[in-house]
Amino acid sequence: MHFLKLILLSLTLFVLASCGPQLEIQGDMEQSRIIMDEDRNLLTFYVRLENTSNLSSPNLFAKFELLNEELVEAFGQETLVFVNESQVPEAFKIGANSGFFIGESFEVEQTFAEEELTEAVEVVIFDEAGDDITRFTITNVELETN
Q1: Of 21, 143, 44, 144, which is closest to residue 101 (Cα–Cα)?
Q2: Is Signal tagged as a keyword (predicted)?
Q3: Structure pTM?
Q4: What is the dihedral of CA 73, 76, 80, 85, to 10 degrees?
C-alpha cells in the first residue's frame, strides 16, 4: 500500500511539473524574407523570431537549410550556420514576450529569380544540445535593383 501511494505521489508531481510554462519560439512568417540585391550581388536572409511565452529563452542558435539545388551549388553546401566574425556559431537569447531579428548577407556570383528563392530556405532554431526549437520556411522574397 505504501508503494502505491509513492507511485501515485510521483505521478502527480510529474504531471504538475510538466504543466508549467513552456518556451514558445516561432518564426514571424510575415516579416521574414529573402532579399536578392542584384546590383551588389548580395543575398540576404532577414529573419524575425517571436517568443510568445513568459519565459526567456536559453542560448539559441540558427542555421539556414538550403532547399534549392541552385543555392546549394552556389554556396557549395546545404546548410549555412549563423556565425560571428570569427566563424563561431552566434548564440542569442530572446526575452519573454519579445522578438529577435537575424540578418545575414552573402555575396553571390549570380542572381536568382524570385521563383528560385521562394520557399528555398528553411530556418532552423536550435539549442545548445542541438535540439530543434522551431523551424520554418521563408516564403517572402524581395528583388532589389537600383
Answers
A1: 44
A2: yes
A3: 0.83
A4: -130
Sign, CA torsion 112/114/117/123: positive
| Statement: residue 133 has pLDDT above 90 | yes
Torsion 129-92-42-86 (CA) sign: negative
| Model confidence pLDDT, tens digit, residues 41-75 | 999 999 999 999 999 999 999 999 999 999 999 99
Query: Measured between alpha carbons, how far is residue 33 from residues 43, 86, 91, 130, 145 in Å?
Result: 11, 25, 21, 24, 16
Cell of 68: 534549392
In this structure, are residues 66 and 121 in contact, taking their beta carbons and an 8 Å threshold?
yes
Amino acid identity of residue 32, one-letter, is S
